[in-house]
Structures are given as C-alpha cells and as structure tokens.
Amino acid sequence: MRRALAKVVVVSALGAVGLFAGGGAVLAATPQTPGPEPGSPEQMSYFADTCRQELQRPPIGGVENVTSPGPGRAVAGDVIDVHLTWDPADWNDTWVEKVLDCVSVDGKPVPELTDEERPSPNDGAYDRELNVPDNMGAGHLLCELSRGGYSQTSSPRVCFTTEAAPPPPTTTTAPPTTTTTAAPTTTTTRPVARAAAGAPTPTPAPAPKPAPVRALPRTGPHERLLLLGGGAALAAGGLGVAAGARRRRASLR
Fold first, then answer.
1. Can you list the alpha helix ranges (DSSP code H) found in 82-210?
2. Local structure of 41: helix, strand or coil
3. Is 200 exposed, middle or buried (0-12, 13-18, 19+ CB in 10 A)?
4. Ramachandran region of residue 39, left (φ > 0), alpha (ψ -120 to 50) or beta?
5. Which of 70, 128, 132, 228 is most buried, judged by most C-beta within 10 A?
6. What distance in Å separates the CA atoms of residue 143 and residue 145, rounded to the nearest whole number?
C-alpha cells in the first residue's frame, strides 16, 4: 500500500513539473500578432480607437517619457524627439507585444501622427521623431503618450502649445542697372628712332637765311633838279663867305 502511494506521489510530481515546463515553453514561443498593415485605413482606425481609450484613463506607469525639446511650445514644422524607457525585467519575454505612441490635438487622437512598433524588442528603450505639421496653427494643445503591451504599462503624457510657423522673409528684387561702358581710347606712339652702331650722324638742317634789306625807293627826275639847285645854292653861299673873309683881312692890313 505504501509502495503504491509512493508511486502515485512520484508520478504526480513529475506530471506537475512537466506541466509547468510545458507552460513556460508555450509562453516563450507565443507568436506575435502582426497587426494591421502600416499606413492602411485599418491601422488608422485602430490607432484612433485605441488612443481614444488611452486618453480617457490615467497613466498606469512603468514607462518613462522624455522629449526633446521638453514640454512647452512647439512651432509648426518642428521635430520633437521622443525617448521611452522601461525596465526589461518587468516582462518575461525577449519581446514586448507592441509599443504604441499616441498623439492628440486638443484632446482628439490624430492617427496620422501616431506611431507603433510591433513587436518591440524588450531592450528597455523606444525612440521616434514626432514631426509637427507645417500647417499647424497657433494655440492648439499637442500631446503625446505611450503604452506597452496590452495596456500593461503606459507613460505620462507630454504636451505642447503650438505656434504657427513664421512667414517667409520678403525678398525685394531691385531692377537691373544698365551700365554703358565707353570704348577705350587707342593711342599710337611712334617708336623713337635709335641710331644704329656705326651709322653716320645725320647732317643738321641749315640755318635760316637773314631777311633781305629793304632798299630805299628810287627818286624821279624832279627830285634830282631840286638836289642840284640846293647844291648850287650851297656852293654860292660858300663862295660868298670866302670873299667876305678876304675883305676883312685886307682892311686889317
């Protein structure tokens, strides 16, 4: 009786060990669900429904959510870096079923800005870039939060107040300026003649001739008669003077 009871206990113990071992192997080999096709309408509908539920409940915890830049303001066109971390020991597998990062604007989920990694390696980190739409207006509340697995963990939400992108700078184009360039002046310089070695010295130019002396005008016959008459008168006067001198001498004697 005791031997039979001992056999039953041993068999029961072996069966229990085999059951737990088999259960552990099944847990590790459980296939991951692929989820909707990325970018498909089915995925957008799934994002909207799941994120709406996450926005209506407080965070569970277990995931730390850090963004760069931090919460505050976000300008249209900015890029927000999202960094999620968790303790891998919180999961009994090398993979997490999924990491879903939800984005909302004014409390409403925005599937186009939501992102999911399925499955996600259980390495304790998840990163993504959140692009603020270029056409985002000012004064909206943009929030981001995440969940891991089947809502086993979730992060606190991080929010930003949006600002419109600044207008592009106005560029004024001045009309083209027409510049008239005068043609350059061409100057021709004659080369200086150099006397070659051994060449004869050039003869200097002759001195200019003196100007001719102007001759007095020739007199006519009337002028000659006048000259002759004047000479006779002078001669007669001289003879008169000589005769008068002789008379004085004779009287003195």
1. none
2. helix
3. exposed
4. left
5. 132
6. 7
Q: Name the pTM for this structure.
A: 0.56
Among the listed residues 168, 164, 142, 167, the one whose alpha carbon sits nearest the alpha carbon of residue 75: 164
Whole-angstrom distance, CA of residue 150 vs CA of residue 135: 34
pLDDT tens readout for residues 121-155? 999 999 999 999 999 999 999 999 998 876 678 89
| Phi, psi for 147 (deg, rounded to 5) | -140, 150
- Helices (H), strands (E): how many in the chain? 3, 12
How long is the chain?
253
User: Which tens digit of pLDDT belongs to each residue from 48-83?
Assistant: 999 999 999 888 888 999 999 999 999 999 999 999
Residue 86 in contact with residue 120, Cβ under 8 Å? no
* DSSP state at residue 113: G
CB-count burial class (<10 Å; 0-12, 13-18, 19+) for 231: exposed
